[in-house]
Specification:
Elements lengths: L3 E5 L4 H11 L6 E6 L2 H15 L4 E5 L5 H10 L4 E6 L19 H19 L3 E8 L22 H9 L9 H22 L4 E5 L15 H18 L6 H11 L10 E4 L8 E3 L10 H12 L3
Parallel strand pairs: 1-2, 1-4, 2-3, 4-5, 5-6, 6-7
Antiparallel strand pairs: 7-8
Helix pairs in contact: 1-2, 1-8, 3-4, 4-6, 5-9, 6-9
Length: 306
C-alpha cells in the first residue's frame, strides 16, 4: 500500500501532478513534497490542497544537487515512507558540466547522485518500506526520431561510468541532451543492481514519456529551447507520437507504483519509435539494459562518489 509517499521535485511539473493524482486516491494518507525552495514548495502545497480538497501534504526541504541536504532531509524525516518517487532532474541548468563538491557534474548530481544518496540513507535508517521509482527516460535506450543517440560506451565498465558521471568521458563533445540520456542509462542500470541487493524493496525505472509542460528544456541553448519547448513538443511531436500531456506522464508514475505485474529491476517505457501510449519492458529494445555486469559497474561507479 502506498499510504506514505515522498516525491522529489514535487513543486512543479510531473512531480506536482503526480502528487495531485496520488492525493485523489483514498489509500494515500500523506505525501511528502521534497523540494529545494521553501517558497515554491509552500505555493505548491497550497495549490494542491485547494485542487484536491485534502490536507495530506507535508514539505521537506531537499536539494538533490547537494548530498548534505539530502542526508539532512532523511534525518528530519518523521516516519518511514512506503514509496519514494525519484522525479527531480533535468539537463543541469546553465552549467551542466560544472563539478559539484562530490566530483560529479551538475547534470549527474540532480538526475542521479542525489537520488542514490537519498535511497542509501533511507535504507540505512529503515525509513523505506516498499517501492523506489526512478524517473528514467526513453533517452536511456535512444530516441531515433528526435536525434537522441543510444548510449554506446566503450565497455560500460566502471571506468566508463565514472567518466560519464564526472564528465571526462565526453571530452569536448558535451551536449547536455545527449549526456542526459547516458546518465539516465547509468541510473537505470543502478536501479537494476539495487533490485538484486535489496529484494524486499521493489525498484522500478519508469519513463514518463515525452511530457509537455515540464521545465526540462528551459536551460537549453536558445535555439534548442525554442525548437523543443515551443515548436516540437506542442505542435509536431504529438502528431508523431512523441509527446503527451502532463497528467498522462504523471499517471505513468501513479499507476506503476501500484501495479503488481511490473517486475523489480526492470525499466518500463514507451514502445520503440514513440514516447507515448502503453509502457513495455525496455531490454527488448536495448539488450544492454539486462546485462548484470553493466548494472554492477554503474552501481560501483556512482557509489564511488559517495
Amino acid at each position: 500500500m502506498n499510504k506514505i509517499v515522498m516525491i522529489t521535485g514535487a513543486n512543479t511539473g510531473i512531480g506536482k501532478d503526480t502528487a495531485r493524482q496520488l492525493a485523489l486516491k483514498n489509500e494515500t494518507q500523506k505525501i511528502y513534497l521534497a523540494c529545494r525552495n521553501r517558497a515554491k514548495a509552500e505555493a505548491a502545497k497550497k495549490d494542491l490542497e485547494e485542487i484536491t480538497g485534502r490536507k495530506i501534504f507535508e514539505i521537506i526541504i531537499l536539494d538533490v544537487s547537494d548530498t548534505d541536504s539530502v542526508k539532512k532531509a532523511v534525518n528530519h524525516l518523521k516516519e518511514p515512507i512506503d514509496t519514494i518517487i525519484l522525479n527531480a532532474g533535468g539537463v543541469g541548468g546553465k552549467t551542466p558540466r560544472a563539478l559539484t563538491k562530490d566530483g560529479v557534474t551538475t547534470i549527474t548530481a540532480i538526475n542521479l547522485l542525489g537520488h542514490v544518496v537519498l535511497v542509501n540513507e533511507l535504507l540505512k535508517s529503515n525509513k523505506l518500506k516498499e517501492t523506489v521509482l526512478f524517473a528514467s527516460s526513453e533517452a536511456a535506450r535512444g530516441i531515433k526520431k528526435t536525434g537522441m543517440k543510444r548510449p554506446e560506451l566503450k565497455n560500460s565498465s566502471v571506468e566508463d561510468f565514472i567518466g560519464v558521471f564526472n564528465g571526462e568521458y565526453f571530452g569536448n563533445d558535451f551536449d547536455a541532451l545527449q549526456v542526459y540520456g547516458v546518465i539516465k542509462y547509468g541510473g537505470t542500470l543502478w536501479m537494476s543492481a539495487m533490485a538484486r541487493k535489496y529484494p524486499h524493496i521493489k525498484f522500478l525505472s519508469i519513463s514518463p514519456g515525452g511530457t509537455r509542460g515540464t521545465e526540462g528544456f528551459d536551460n537549453l541553448p536558445f535555439l534548442q529551447k525554442i525548437m523543443f519547448k515551443y515548436i516540437g513538443m506542442p505542435i509536431f511531436m504529438p502528431l508523431m507520437g512523441l509527446s503527451h500531456s502532463l497528467p498522462k506522464g504523471a499517471k505513468r508514475f501513479v499507476d506503476s507504483i501500484s501495479n503488481p505485474s511490473l517486475k523489480s529491476g526492470n525499466f518500463y517505457a514507451s514502445k520503440e519509435n514513440v514516447l507515448t501510449g502503453p509502457i513495455m519492458e525496455q531490454s527488448v529494445i536495448f539488450q544492454d539494459l539486462k546485462n548484470e555486469q553493466y548494472q554492477e559497474n554503474a552501481y560501483t561507479a556512482i557509489q564511488s562518489f559517495i
